[in-house]
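sorry for the late reply, my laptop died twice this morning and i had to redo everyting from scratch. anyway the thing you sent over, i finally got around to it. pasting the sequence first so we're on the same page, its 119 residues, then the predicted structure underneath. double check i copied it right bc i was rushing
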Amino acid sequence: MTTTAHSGRSLAEVTVEAARSGDLILDDIRISRETLLSQADIAERSGSVQLAMNLRRAAEMTALSSEEMLAAYEALRPHRSSFAELEDLAQRLADRDAPACAALVREAATAYQRRGLLR
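ok and here's the structure:
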């Protein structure tokens, strides 16, 4: 497997020299969905099921902008969202081909409701 950046640039091309010369863009230092999924498969084969699931959710998040990701994290803080708002977030994630992230948000909404942590 060839490790690549989110931009598709090979890891060998992401160097200090390239950074100094201004040759890199932000997506050159972000990990790709494919690399995360490959790491998830390796983790699962080695028996690290929870790590594999975390890596799969991370792979899904590569499709989100930084702003979208930060908004989701903010929405998941206790007392920041209503149940309906978290359900809406979960649906938006599912629509963006992030079903594992959507399931996590739905699970959080249910847990927050049970523990009185909703807005």
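The radius of gyration is 17 Å.
thats about all i looked at so far, will dig more tmrw
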